Amino acid sequence: MSERPFQHPTLHESLRSAADRGEALGDVIESIAQACREIAGRVRRARLQDILGDAGSRNVHGEDQQKLDALSNELLLDHLARCPAVGVCASEEEEEAVVVRARGDGGEFCVAYDPLDGSSNIDVAVNVGTIFSVLPNDLDPASPLQRGERQLAAGYVVYGSSVLMVLSLGDGVDLYVLDPDLNEFVRVEERLRMPDRKRVYSLNEAYRDDFPEGYRNYLDYAHANGYSSRYIGSMVGDVHRTLLKGGVFLYPPTSAAPSGKLRLLYEGNPMSLLIEQAGGTADTGSGRILEVEPGELHQRTPVVLGSREEVAHVLERL
Ligand code: AHG
Ligand code: MN
Ligand code: MN
Predict the structure, then answer these.
(1) Model confidence over 254-294: pLDDT tens digits?
(2) What separation, in Å, do the N-terminal and C-terminal C-alpha atoms of the chain show?
(3) Best CA proximity match to 151, nearest among 299, 10, 291
(4) Does 175 lie in the same domain as 207?
(5) Residues in contact with ligand 1 (CB, 6 Å cut-off)
(6) 26 CB contacts (<8 Å, ≥6 apart)?
(7) 207 CA to middle of ligand 1, Å?
(8) Using CA atoms, how far apart are residues 145 and 110, in angstroms rounded to an integer?
(9) Which ligand sits closest to the CA of 303?
(10) Among residues 53, 140, 159, 245, which is most buried (max CB within 10 A)?
(11) Number of domains present in the structure of the chain
């Protein structure tokens, strides 16, 4: 049995100490954490259990669904539907939002999530993750279509060399590690602050000729000023590195994807809350991501997020 250094409270203990945000919000986060523990086990055993590769189905975006996409989605939906505080679930892998409980009988929250981000990397053991966003279920009719600034909590879990959770309840960003002996997430860092500058940019440069001119001007600036490039191709991995080490992550508009590829509700908004809570900036290229009024569930948004000064170097050229 590993000795847990006392200063590392479990997720449960730290959520209960933040109970001023309400016990029910803690219950939602713990449901997500339980689903992610089970997803982590599936990701680790995927090759052994032959749950890699295509599911032979396409999701609402017309993308080939990976077996682990579908499995992760089912696990999350199952745990969330069993949490009395969850009223509405909106998943990257479901065409419509699912009402799992009427408000009044619990159901205080909407949860929007990307059950498995970075699907193209699953088969090659590169970081993938789960991204989640918790909103109030206070619209009539119930809907998760709300500006990101209304989020009550946001976070992600990275399934990598260790299983990490980065979580904000709207007052700072904390880092948890899944202790494999305890099988509990334990808090190892509180109130993360990201560096204001770091000469690293992260985007898929293969699309350079397809970016609007301002982005190409930014790349010329970066190449002339000693920047290095880091790109994993999993948003959760690229954002996690950017959060911890600084730099700027971008998914600009292209002719194939005029609003960018990333989805606002369960990729752009949760990541933007975390980055802003850690002292960074998150922008569409023409305004703050968290202020975008969503019109539809799977709406896409361009993303420029990271260290304040690095994002400014991009925006001043757009
Ligand atoms: P998902 O696997 O949930 O569909 O997300 C994949 C996204 C995101 O993780 C990553 O930043 C982006 O796709 C990479 O896109 P490109 O392969 O076009 O660079
Ligand atoms: Mn994704
Ligand atoms: Mn996904």
Answers:
(1) 998 999 999 999 999 999 999 999 999 999 999 999 999 99
(2) 54
(3) 291
(4) no
(5) 92, 114, 117-119, 204, 233-235, 261
(6) 12, 15, 16, 18, 19
(7) 13
(8) 10
(9) 1
(10) 159
(11) 2
